[in-house]
Amino acid sequence: MAGAILRRVTPTTASPRVAPLPLPLPVPLLARGVSDSTDAITVSTSVPFKSHIVDPPPREATTSARELLAFFRDMSLMRRAEIAADSLYKAKLIRGFCHLYDGQEAVAVGMEAAITRADAITTAYRDHCLYLARGGDLVAAFAELMGRRDGCSRGKGGSMHFYKRDANFFGGHGIVGAQVPLGCGIAFAQRYRKEGTVTFDLYGDGAANQGQLFEALNMAALWKLPVVLVCENNHYGMGTAEWRASKSPAYYKRGDYVPGLKVDGMDVLAVKQACKFAKEHVLESGPIILEMDTYRYHGHSMSDPGSTYRTRDEIAGIRQERDPIERVRKLILAHEFATAQELKDMEKELRKQVDAAIAKAKESPMPDPSELFTNVYVNDCGLESFGVDRKVVRTVLP
Amino acid sequence: MAAAASSALHAVGAVASAKPRSAAPAVARRRSVRVAAAAKGGPGSSGRGRMVARSAVAAKADEAAAAAGSKSGGHELLLFEALREALIEEMNLDPTVCVIGEDVGHYGGSYKVTKGLAEMFGDLRVLDTPIAENSFTGMGVGAAMKGLRPVVEGMNMGFLLLAYNQISNNCGMLHYTSGGQFKIPIVIRGPGGVGRQLGAEHSQRLESYFQSIPGLQMVACSTPYNAKGLMKAAIRSENPVVLFEHVLLYNLKEKIPDEEYICCLEEAEMVRPGEHVTILTYSRMRYHVMQAAKTLVNKGYDPEVIDIRSLKPFDLHTIGNSIKKTHRVLIVEECMRTGGIGASLRSAIIDNFWDYLDAPIMCLSSQDVPTPYASTLEDATVVQPAQIVAAVEQICQ
C-alpha cells in the first residue's frame, strides 16, 4: 500500500509518533542491500541559516541512512504523484484548479521529519504533498482530485481542500492568506488545552502581503501562541515575481518583533533542522517565521504554463543545481547507502505504486446525488438542506 | 441519513429540546401546542401588548405574576444580563467555551454582555483582541476546528463585514469541503440594527448578507427569555451559529425562569395568536408590530404575530400552520428591501403555501438607503407602527 511508503522514520529519539503503521518496509525495496542503518551521520546544510533577532541553529544536521532513504522515497513518491496529476489534468480527469508542488517536496518532508502527528499543519491550496506527508492515502488523494466518492473529502472538496483530521492536517484552503489566522487559532486551542504541541502555518510569498497575516502575527506574539509561520517562498505569486509584489522580499524579517529564519527550502536536512529548532522555540517563546527558499517547477496551477514570467533557463537551472531529490540522491550515493541502480529501481517501484493508486481511484464512482446535501450541517437530522427552506415544508400540513 | 433522529443540535439536558422534524402530524400538533403555551403567558412570556418605547428602555411586563411554568418565582433581568447569564452557565458547564472579541475582557464588553467574565474565567477564556476582525474571527474558526467552542463577538455586527471571507468560506463551508471531518461549533454574535442616530456604518443589518452562506445557522433574539435560550442553544450547537442582537433591545426587562432552559434554534415564537392575518417579524420590529397590534385590536382586527427568530433556516412549520389559518401574510423586518430576509421568506412562502394565500404577501422593510443621521430621516428609514397598521388594513380588505 502506498501509504506504507510514507511511514516516517526518525533516527533520533523524537517524541512518539501517532503514525500507526508499523515497519518492516516492503520486501522488494530492501532485498538488495540498501542500507537501513540508523547510525547517526552529520551532514552540513547547503548554506548557513540567516536569522532575524534570534540565534540560528547550527548548520550541522544529524541524519542516518534510514532517514535519508525515507526522504528519497517520500520525495520521489510526491514528485511522481504530482507529475501523474499533471497528466490526469491534461486528460481532463482532474478539473478546475490544480496547484502542483513538484520542486517543493523538501519542505513537506523535512517538516514532517521534525515533528509529530500531534502537531498541526495547515496550508493553502498547494496541499497534495502535505496531505501525503501527514500519512494521507494516495488512492484517496487521487480520488479526491477526480471528484470521486472515495476521495479524502468525499469528492466535495477538490484539489484545494484536502484534510486529515486524525493526523492534525487542517487543509487545504483556497483563499490566499485566509489559513493564517486559522492556524493561529489552532495554536490558540493548543495553548488553551495545554497540549504542548505546535502548529505549522504555511503560506506563500504572495500571501505574505495579506493584512490578516500581520493581524494574526500580532496576536500570536501578544499571546505567545505556539505557531510557526512558514513562508514557502517560491518567488512567484502566480505570475508576479516577489520583487514586483513586495517592497521587502526578506519575508523572514517582516515579523519585525517576531524572530525569523531563512532556510534553503530545497535542502530537506536544512528544513528538518529549522523546523526542529522552530518547534522548540515557539513552545518557549511564541511565534517564529521560517522562510523556505524553494521553487516550483510547474506554473502556479495547471492553467498557468509558468513560462511567461520566468525563463526556461531559470527553471532548468534550479533543476540542475538545487533539486531536492537529486541532492539526497547524491548524499546517499556519496555515503554508499545504496547504488544508483537501486535508487532507480526504487523510483520504478514508486511509479508503479502511483499508477496502481490512480487505477484504483478511477474505479471509485462519483458521489451519490444525495451527497449534495450531506455535511452542510452537522447532524443533518434527516433534513435536506434547501437554503432557507427545510424539508418539513414538503409535508402536508394537518 | 438518520430519519427520525432527534436533533442533536442542542441535545444536552433542559426543557425545550427539538423534536424530530418529521412529517407525522401528531408531532406537529404537539409542537404547536407547546409554542402556543409559551405565548399564553408561559415561561418568560413577553410580548402580547407590550409597549416598548423606541429607545427601548426597560419596559414593564403587563403580566406581573411569576412566569407560568416556572417552578420557582423566576427572576427579573435585562436582556444583556440574560445573554451574560447564558454565557456564564455555558462556560461553567463546558471548559472549552471561550469568548473572543474586542474589549470583552477587562472592559467588560461594550454592551456589558461579558461584564465580570474575565474575573471569573481568566484572560485566556475571555480574550481581549486587538482590532482585527478578519483574523480573530479566523482564529475562532481555527480554534473551533481544534476542539474549542468559541463565542466571537463583533462589537457591532457591521464590523464583521471585515471578516466576511472567514465567515463565509471557512466558518460556513469547512464542514462540507472537508467531507464532514471538521465541525465548527462557533457562535458569532453582536449587536446590529438601526440604533439611535449611530450613523450609516453603525446601523447595519447583516442578516441579509449572511443568509446565502451555506452551512451557517442564523437566529435573532428579541426578549431576555429567548436571548438566554438562544445563546445557550447556539453554544451547544455543533454548527456555526450567528446570533443577531439589537442595539436598542439590550435594556429590555423581563422575568425569566430560575431553572435552566434552552430555546430551539430553528423554532419560531408565537407572540400573539390571532385569526385575521399572520404578521412575521423578528428582533426589534417585533415591538413595533406589537405596538401596531394594540391599535389594530382597537380597530377590530385580530392579528397573529410570530417572531420568526430563526432566520436560517425558517421555521416554515409554524409559519405554514399560521398561514393555513389566516390566509394573509405581512412580513415586517428591519432588513433592507433588496435581498433581505423578507425577500427570501416571501419566496419560501410562495413556493410552499401558495394555495393557502388569499392576498398577496406584503413585506415592509427598511428603505434601501444608508441610514441617515438626522432623527426624522432615520425614523423614516425603518418601519413604523403606523405603516404596519395601514398594511394590515390593506391586506384585510
TrEMBL record, chain A:
It is an enzyme of class 1 (oxidoreductase). Pfam families: E1_dh. Its EC number is 1.2.4.1. Its cofactor is thiamine diphosphate. Residues 74-369 form the Dehydrogenase E1 component domain. Coiled coil: none annotated. GO terms for biological process: pyruvate decarboxylation to acetyl-CoA. It comes from the Eukaryota. GO terms for molecular function: pyruvate dehydrogenase (acetyl-transferring) activity. Keywords: Oxidoreductase, Pyruvate, Thiamine pyrophosphate. It catalyses: N(6)-[(R)-lipoyl]-L-lysyl-[protein] + pyruvate + H(+) = N(6)-[(R)-S(8)-acetyldihydrolipoyl]-L-lysyl-[protein] + CO2. NCBIfam families: PDH_E1_alph_y (TIGR03182). The pyruvate dehydrogenase complex catalyzes the overall conversion of pyruvate to acetyl-CoA and CO(2). It contains multiple copies of three enzymatic components: pyruvate dehydrogenase (E1), dihydrolipoamide acetyltransferase (E2) and lipoamide dehydrogenase (E3). Tetramer of 2 alpha and 2 beta subunits. This is Pyruvate dehydrogenase E1 component subunit alpha. It comes from Miscanthus lutarioriparius.
TrEMBL record, chain B:
Its main location: plastid. The keyword Metal-binding applies. CDD domains: TPP_PYR_E1-PDHc-beta_like. Residues 77-252 form the Transketolase-like pyrimidine-binding domain. Its cofactor is thiamine diphosphate. It holds the Pfam family Transket_pyr. One of its GO terms (molecular function) is pyruvate dehydrogenase (acetyl-transferring) activity. It is found in: Plastid, Chloroplast. Gene3D superfamilies: 3.40.50.920, 3.40.50.970. It catalyses: N(6)-[(R)-lipoyl]-L-lysyl-[protein] + pyruvate + H(+) = N(6)-[(R)-S(8)-acetyldihydrolipoyl]-L-lysyl-[protein] + CO2. It is an enzyme of class 1 (oxidoreductase). One of its GO terms (cellular component) is chloroplast. Keywords: Chloroplast, Metal-binding, Oxidoreductase, Plastid, Potassium, Pyruvate, Thiamine pyrophosphate, Transit peptide. Its EC number is 1.2.4.1. Transmembrane segments: none annotated. Tetramer of 2 alpha and 2 beta subunits. The pyruvate dehydrogenase complex catalyzes the overall conversion of pyruvate to acetyl-CoA and CO(2). It contains multiple copies of three enzymatic components: pyruvate dehydrogenase (E1), dihydrolipoamide acetyltransferase (E2) and lipoamide dehydrogenase (E3). This is pyruvate dehydrogenase (acetyl-transferring).
